């Protein structure tokens, strides 16, 4: 009977000890910045997804826009070819989570989008030579959609830049830099000044009407 009386209280001690250990671990992880790092990492990923979504939205507009322009300017084959090549190049880059940690891949993606921006600018400039195209209702609608999409891209891109800056600051700061090293969390590449200037210049869609 004496043995049972001792064993029974001990059976309650183990769960209490486990709970205490888990609670201590949670506090330690929170105190060392682990939870904050994870949260910021998720925010970076989410904001990047929005950047990609808006670029995809722009990409989806391109075929319709080209088809309308072709109805009035079939001879502008060089411009159409440039747009097709730029679209193919941008679409050929697979956007994966690993891209966010690869500076070279990030640079290639930004450059591809910059080429797409330039090609669209040339396509939109074609309309200046074709008054009938400028007055086409479908063209005007696509023009408005493109302008709105470029604005969304700018907003999404700026948010991503801010999220990456916040995350990278946390990764570099003491004592969270120690936690980041332990868990293999490194700084993420961001848009460089050069490609940021390029892709932040939206195609000209204001025809002065």
Structure description:
The structure is a single chain. The N and C termini lie far apart (97 Å). The C terminus is likely disordered. The chain is mostly helical. Helix content is 78%, strand content 0%. The radius of gyration is 27 Å and the shape is elongated. Helix 2 runs antiparallel to helix 3, helix 2 packs parallel to helix 4 and helix 3 packs antiparallel against helix 4.
Tally of separate helices: 8
- Detail the poorly predicted runs: 16-29, 202-209
Distance between the termini: 97 Å
The average pLDDT score comes to 82
Rg (C-alpha, Å): 27 Å
H and E string: HHHHHHHH
What percentage of the residues does DSSP assign to strands (E)?
A: under 5%
User: Which structural class matches the secondary elements?
Assistant: mainly alpha
Oligomeric status? single chain
| Strand runs, count | 0
**Largest sheet geometry:** none
Summarize the amount of helix as a percent range: over 70%
Task: Provide a quick synopsis of the model.
With about 210 residues, this protein is mostly helical.
What are the defining features of this structure?
single chain, 209 residues, mainly alpha, elongated, disordered C terminus
Question: What layout of secondary structure does this protein have?
Answer:
Blueprint: H1 2-31, H2 34-72, H3 77-91, H4 103-126, H5 131-134, H6 137-172, H7 176-182, H8 193-199
Helix pairs in contact: 2-3, 2-4, 2-6, 3-4, 4-8
